[in-house]
Amino acid sequence: RDPNRGTIYDGPMALLVNAQSASASEMLAGTLQDYNRAVIIGSTTFGKATMQALFPLDTVNLKATPSDSETELAKVTVGKIFRVNGHTAQLTGVIPDIILPDAFDGLPIGERFEISPLNADTVAKNNYYKPLALLPIGDLSAKSKTRLTNNVNFVQLSKMADAQRKIVNEGKMIIPLQPDQFGKWRQQQDVFSVTPDCDNVISAAFTADNHAQDKQKLLGDDFEKEINDMWLKNISCDLYIQEAASVLTDLINITKTTSKN
To answer: How many CA atoms lie within 13 A of 143 on its CB side?
Structure first.
C-alpha cells in the first residue's frame, strides 16, 4: 500500500541508462518502460536482476557485519527481480526505447559475462498491471537517429565503439614496431579521442539551473558554489543530456499535435 498516494508529476519524462546501470536502476527503468511512463534513452543496461545477502561463515560470531573481510562472509543469491510484465532484466538488461552510441558498447560489460549467471526466465504478470497509453517511440526514434547522424561527436563515439568491439572480438591488439607502420597505427588510434571541448558543445536548447532552495543554500558558501557551477557547466555540455532534452522536446511537440487533432 502506498502511504503517499497521488501524483507529484505527470508530465513528459525521460530516463538515461547505459551498461553501468544495474540492479535498482534497472528496476526503475524497466517499470517506467512497462507502464509507458517514460522514454528510456541510452544503451542496454547491465542485466543484473538478482538479490544477494551476506551470511557470516562463523555462525557463533553474531557480530559479523558487511564490513568484515570477505573471507569471513558468504554472499548468497536469495532472489530474482521480475518486471511487472512478468519478464526480467536478468542477463538481457533493459533495452532502451531510444538507442544512443556508448563508449562501453564494445566492451564485455554485463551480467551475461559473469561466471555462471542465473538464467533469464519469466513469471505470470500481475493481473492489476495496466500500462498507460503507448508513447510515440517510432517517431521519437526516427528524429533521434537523424540528429545522431548529423552530430560529429556521436559519430565519433560510434567509430570508437566499433574499434573497441573489433579489439575485444580478436582478443588482442597488435602494435607494429616499424616506424612507418607505427605512425599509421597511431593515427588510427585517434578514433579513441572523443572528448570534445565543453565550451564548444554547450547546449543552446536548454539551461541547467538550480531550484530556489539550492540557490539559497549556495549564497553563503563560495566553495560549494564553485563546485555547483562546474556541475551545471558539465550538464550543459553533456551530449547524452542534450539528446535526452531533444527527445523530450519532440515528445512534447508530438503530444501537442496529437491532442489538437
So the answer is: 16
Question: Minimal CA–CA distance to 148: which of 138, 139, 158?
Answer: 158
Count Cβ atoms within 10 A of the Cβ of residue 15 and give its class: 0-12 exposed, 13-18 middle, 19 or more buried.
buried
Q: Does the global pTM surpass 0.90?
A: no
Task: Establish if 81 belongs to a structural domain.
Answer: yes
What pLDDT, in 10s, does the model give residues 234-252? Answer: 898 889 999 999 999 999 9
- pLDDT at residue 67 greater than cutoff 60: no
Number of domains in the chain: 1
> Scanning the structure block, which residue is given the C-alpha cell 579521442?
193
Helix (H, G, I), strand (E, B) or coil at 63: coil
Which residue stretches of 84-178 are H helix?
Answer: 137-149, 152-170
Predicted local confidence at residue 199, as pLDDT: 66
Q: Does some domain include residue 175?
A: yes
Its domain, for residue 155, covers 14-202+237-260
CA–CA gap between residue 143 and residue 257 (Å, rounded): 16
